[in-house]
Amino acid sequence: MKNNLDLSTLRKELQTQDNQCTAEPIFLVEEKKRVYGFDPIYSEETVFVDIENGGNEVDLEEYGLTYEEALNENGLTECGYADEWNFVNAHFSDRSAKEYIEKNGHRHSGELRVMVDTMLRCPEMIAIRKALLEGQLFQHDNEPYETNIERPYTCSCGGMPTMILTGSAGKEDKHQIVCTVCGTCGPRSSQKSAAINEWNLQVEALCTHRNVYELMRICSNRVKAAKSARGSKNA
Length: 235
Fold this sequence. Notes:
Layout: H1 7-16, E1 25-38, E2 46-50, E3 56-58, H2 60-63, H3 67-71, E4 76-91, H4 94-104, E5 112-118, H5 123-133, E6 161-166, E7 174-179, H6 192-208, H7 212-234
Antiparallel strand pairs: 1-4, 1-5, 2-3, 2-4, 6-7
């Protein structure tokens, strides 16, 4: 099945949705299931079931019976019941949970509802939600990095860098390299390659104490030399 999820749209949705006063919320789809067989003496709710017809619940009005008549009706038995709400699946957004019910309600025999719960003490789920909120998860549209794009250097702190999408309302999202350990951010750019190259310049400046403009000149000379070498080979 094709996944049409847009993580950028999801991030904005998580930032603006009603979390119903719940910390680290997760939206659960639940299905109601009625459990029969409890002693009616100790049950607040009771129904009649047709023992001779698979134990199905009986609507006394449809049968044209009063409660007293049902007690004396052959095959009918009064029993207590309890309604349980069973877990179906979980969603980061309320909209997605409701959309599941709209599209898949016909696959379920019981009533469906959306309930909000907390992911407290679930560090892995909290980390994923935080990454979504902060734009640290992004899509490559199932396409690999272009082979001519340089990989980002390890941060000066030794941490691993990752690329995120950042943006604000009404503005185009831009690429940015961020260290997953110390949180150092590189310059933002609309191009992946530019974001990586500018990050690498920043790291190299921090590690070598060179002037960034000097490094940009060196980098430019490297690019020119590489293009010249490719031109010689093609000739």
